[in-house]
Amino acid sequence: MKILITGSNSPLGSYFIQQIRHSYDNCKVFALSRRNYQSNNENVQHITHDLKNNNFDCNEKFDIVLHVASAVPAGTQDDSEFSAVNHKGSIHLFENLVLAKNATILNISSTSVYDDPSSEILTENSKKTSDNQYGLSKLQFENSLNSLFANTSIRVLTCRLPVLLVKGVQNNFMANWLQQIRIGQPITLFNPESLLNACIYGEDIFNFFIKFYEESSNQNLTCNLSSKNPIKVIDAAKLMIDSLGGPIKIIEKQAEKTAQLVSNKLAVENGFKPKTVEGSIRSFVEA
């Protein structure tokens, strides 16, 4: 079995490589990234590829593709990069891949595809963004990917992620909490009394994909992922502080935008088994 993982140098890409190696002993992993992926495992081979600039030229036939590579707001200077990398470059990659007849694709998307400020809970049917260039690029790629493989036996699972919790992740508010708490700095909470479930631990994403790959009869599934059993924002922060030994000063503020829950009902109906918010935070802290 041959598996391609894009964005292999990212925290989630690196995590997926480790988990794939543990799950399938006889697989050959191809780690795609712009910069060299360092690995001492002879079953992991690096492919240098820039989604924005390069044509993909590889004759390997892949059974699984985990598409993690992305231009993200924190690392992007120009909004045009979102379309160039997340939509045009990514679909160009898939147009040039050689895939096994019954290959399975995991596409990592984002809840940034939504802009529905009147809704307390985001579902797959919530209003989509019309002006967030990052969210638009992810949504456009979702649609293009599904169209590309619509009349084939290749299956596509698209997971829209909120706050990602995995070792090494940066630039989301929980990752910022973690960094600030570890160095003893105060943390700022917005809407501290609002309920929170918009976070997801890496292990839950991977386990859901493996279940889809091994058991699901769905051809295409696009769904939100989030943790179960929402808790207050302030309780989530206190849990992280307590887990790291605290105490840390908490600054409370109210944000103009309402905090929103993310429904994972569709994913759960299709075999997703998420951790609780508390479990996700503890796993993130201990990673």
Structure description:
With 287 residues, the protein is an alpha/beta fold. It has a domain at 2-162 and 200-225 and 262-274: Rossmann fold (3-Layer(aba) Sandwich). It has 8 helices and 15 strands. It has helices at 11-23, 80-96, 133-148, 173-182, 202-215, 233-244, 265-269, 277-286; strands at 2-6, 28-33, 44-48, 61-67, 98-110, 121-122, 155-161, 163-165, 187-190, 195-196, 199-201, 220-224, 231-232, 250-253, 261-262. Strand 4, helix 2 and strand 5 form a beta-alpha-beta unit. The model has no long low-confidence stretch (mean pLDDT 95).
Q: What key attributes describe this structure?
A:
Rossmann fold; alpha/beta; 34% helix; two-stranded parallel ribbon; 287 residues
